[in-house]
Design a protein that fits this description.
Blueprint (H helix, E strand, L loop, with lengths): L2 H22 L10 E9 L2 E2 L2 E8 L5 E7 L2 E6 L2 E18 L7 E6 L12 E4 L8 E3 L3
Length: 140
């Protein structure tokens, strides 16, 4: 056996446990079981056209987030008591951000009230069923 072959063999043997651990995984646990949860979100009776919903576990703050499209969402989340945050923005017609000279970027605004996101009081209990009651938000 040449020195180069011996060195290559040692390198392969040294890396073999790492490769096996990667293929098999450590501990065999895949994490908490998640369920597909869906529902609707409206503001003053109108579906949120484009936004985001986040479910945050009450016990440790873990987040499960998904898009809202045409008032509907679907998120994979674990079971338990959750706080719910909903955000959405829209372009303000006729207003532009002029901070970059020569470029008029349309100005957007967050229009969902803080009581549904940064100061949320919304809650949900995810129990493994596929749908939740609608979130019917009010602007006032």
């Amino acid at each position: 056996m040449t020195p180069t072959t011996n060195l290559t063999r040692r390198a392969v043997l040294a890396l073999l446990p790492i490769a096996l651990a990667t293929l098999v995984g450590c501990g065999g646990e895949a994490g908490p079981k998640t369920y597909s949860v869906s529902g609707t979100v409206t503001l003053d009776g109108t579906p949120i056209s484009d936004g985001q919903i986040t479910f945050r576990t009450a016990k440790d703050g873990r987040r499960f987030t998904g898009p809202i499209k045409d008032g509907k969402y679907e998120v994979k989340a674990e079971t338990g008591d959750m706080t719910v945050e909903i955000v959405a923005s829209r372009v303000v017609p006729g207003k532009f951000d002029k901070s970059n000279p020569g470029v008029d970027e349309p100005l957007s605004e967050m229009y969902i009230p803080k009581k549904y996101n940064s100061d949320t009081k919304l809650t949900a209990k995810i129990d493994g069923s596929a749908s939740l009651p609608p979130f019917e938000l009010k602007s006032k």
